[in-house]
Amino acid sequence: MQYLRVKAHRPKKSLGQNFLHDRRILEKIVHAASISKEDTVIEIGPGKGILTTELAKLAGHLIAIEKDRDLIRPLHATLSDFNNVELLNEDVLDYTMPKNRYKLVANIPYYITSPILTHFLHDAFTKNLTPPTVCILLVQKEVAQKICAAPPDMNVLALNIQTFGKPKIISYVSRNAFSPKPNVDSAIIRIDVFKKPAVDCDLAHYFELIHAGFSQKRKTLANSLKKLGGVTLLQQAGINPTCRAETLTISEWQSLALN
Ligand code: SAM
Predict the structure, then answer these.
(1) Each residue of 3-48: pLDDT tens digit?
(2) Which of 9, 19, 137 has most ligand 1 atoms within 8 Å of its beta carbon, as the pocket-test mutant?
(3) Angle between helical axes of 250-258 and 203-214 (0-180°, round to 10)
(4) Going by DSSP bridges, is the β-strand pair 186-193/165-173 parallel, antiparallel, or unpaired?
(5) How many A from CA of 71 to the centre of ligand 1?
(6) Which residues of the chain register pLDDT less than 50?
């Protein structure tokens, strides 16, 4: 007699595998994305397919990108009823976005939150690729709060996101909603992506100034921007040289980049 051996999937910490099991959170994510048959949706890291199945029911076309080869066969089985799902076994950071606009909806692997956002926002805008129209993402709670920061508490990540879209925290999510349970709580964020960046200047120079401005904690901008124009540049842009980087608005960074 032959026995069918089903190998249970062992979550891989190295790939940020904390699988969602709370269906109320699932409903909140899907609701926030307001998906219709007109939509193409990209999901990063479908995992065991809990969110994927819901997205597949609603979207016209779903592209699900999963790095873990071990999850691909079970995912194909879970999604066998759908003919609108494209399952890709690749690293999302190597993925080239489609030409038509799409929504990005995912419970992302937290270890690459910043690279994922840079890939789909900054890189899409600066390399003439297609950014999403909206992102609905589960991220670590503290990271969500950092992304939504405002002056006088700005940071590089917030500027990196808010230059390309308007972020908002939709809901906080307890660590108990996942298995295995992570060490941190989470939040659902929605980023409404702009058609054009919020600034009209050379983006490479704008981000060069931002990175230099934040490179030395607690230093005044006169000090941290010394090599890029220092006091003279700040005065030309109408910014007090004793200010710290955290206090500047997006439009003040733009003024610096234009001077
Ligand atoms: N969506 C599932 C859920 O909500 O239960 C799984 C979410 S889990 C937090 C993150 C998923 O992203 C895992 O399935 C993991 O294998 C996958 N992943 C990790 N790194 C990835 C990468 N670089 N590219 C694509 N998928 C990745």
Answers:
(1) 444 467 899 999 999 999 999 999 999 999 999 999 999 999 999 9
(2) 19
(3) 110
(4) antiparallel
(5) 10
(6) 1-6
